[in-house]
Write a structure and sequence with these properties.
The chain has helices spanning 7-11, 60-75, 113-120, 124-141, 199-214, 227-236, 239-242, 245-252, 259-285, 305-331, and strands at 18-20, 27-37, 40-47, 50-56, 85-93, 98-106, 111-112, 144-145, 154-157, 162-165, 172-173, 288-291, 294-297. The chain is of the alpha+beta class. It folds into two domains: 7-106, Phosphorylase Kinase, domain 1; 111-278, Transferase(Phosphotransferase), domain 1, CATH 1.10.510. It has a six-stranded antiparallel β-sheet. A three-stranded antiparallel β-sheet has the order 7-9-10.
């Protein structure tokens, strides 16, 4: 007899549901969904060891593939790309009389890439992407391409902030066809390359992530112009992107074969920007001011201790006077 249970029924789990593994007998209480993907749903769950992320899928092959990727990630020295794998098991759902595969991984608490940038400022874009490129270099050296690289799959956590990748469903062995992708970050969508799993595919996505930080709402491909032409026009339209123009266009054109190459150029772009900003501040501080027939340099001097004390006393007196007037008004 064929089971007609839909995917939504298999992966849809209510908050409070207890999932107990068939083989390892570990139990997890579902708290809320964290994300929906092509091959299942990820939930926040509570376990005896604290909060975890639990993914359910009706596709056992997909679960096996993602588990293998997480195992490979754990072997990449010095990399914190993906979450740690904690458990793999099956769950017998009595309500639909079906066994459902699932795996449990580390719950990475933090903000998504774009949320973090919105809170902390656009200048963090380059810093976080330098971290991302370092991790991608290690991943590529081990024969993998992340594939579905996008801000939603990037979490920034910890102090100091550290970028981490989640949802490894699109990770593909180099040389094969990309398994999963999101159009805006896919070079095939923009007509500037294939969907072959190779380092340059991920590096194109990094360029689009930088652009997405400046264009939070993204933008569709125009039907009236070539993809590269449109992307270059978008770069030229924003000063925040103009300073990275060489790096972005090299990634878009597939000129980088290694993440380290793109990282090197990004470091140089950030260095030039910092030097320019410092020089600009010096010019502002040292503008000549004409004083009669002489030109003098106006220097910024911090207020003396005496001036600071007088200002503090004045502020206290004004606050006190305002309070007295308020009380008097209430009595009237």
């Amino acid at each position: 007899m064929m089971n007609n249970t839909t995917k939504s029924q298999v992966c849809n789990v209510r908050s409070g549901t207890i999932i107990t593994g068939k083989w390892h007998k570990k139990s997890y209480r579902i708290v809320k969904p964290l994300g929906y993907g092509a091959n299942g749903v990820v939930y926040l769950a509570e376990s005896s060891e604290g909060s975890v992320a639990l993914k359910i899928s009706e596709n056992s092959m997909s679960i096996t593939s993602e588990v293998n990727v997480l195992k490979h990630f754990s072997k990449v020295q010095g990399s914190a790309l993906g979450p740690s794998l904690l458990d793999v098991d099956d769950w017998y759902r009595a309500d639909i009389r079906q066994t459902v595969p699932f795996y449990v991984m580390e719950y990475i608490k933090g903000d998504t890439f774009l949320t973090f940038i919105e809170k902390r400022g656009i200048e963090w874009t380059g810093i976080l992407c330098l971290q991302l490129l370092t991790d991608l270099e290690r991943l590529h050296q081990n024969g993998w391409v992340f594939g579905d690289l996008k801000p939603d799959n990037l979490i920034v956590s910890g102090h100091p902030p550290r970028i981490r990748c989640i949802d490894v469903g699109g990770t593909t062995v180099q040389g094969r066809a990309i398994k999963e992708f999101t159009e805006f970050y896919d070079r095939g969508y923009w007509g500037v390359g294939s969907r072959k799993a190779e380092p340059s595919y991920d590096l194109f996505a990094v360029a689009m992530i930088i652009m997405n930080a400046v264009y939070p709402k993204r933008f569709p491909r125009s039907s009236s112009q070539e993809g590269r032409e449109q992307l270059k026009q978008k770069i030229d339209s924003k000063q925040e992107l103009k300073k990275f123009e060489t790096v972005l266009l090299n990634a878009i054109d597939g000129k980088y074969q290694q993440a380290n190459e793109m990282r090197r150029d990004l470091v140089q772009s950030l260095s030039r920007t910092n030097i320019h900003n410092k020089d600009k501040k010096k010019v502002i501080k040292q503008q000549p001011v004409k004083n009669g027939s002489r030109s003098t340099i106006r220097k910024h001097r911090p207020p003396s201790k005496k001036q600071g004390f007088v200002e503090t006393c004045l502020i206290v007196m004004l606050v006190f006077l305002g309070y007295i007037l308020y009380i008097y008004g209430q009595l009237l």
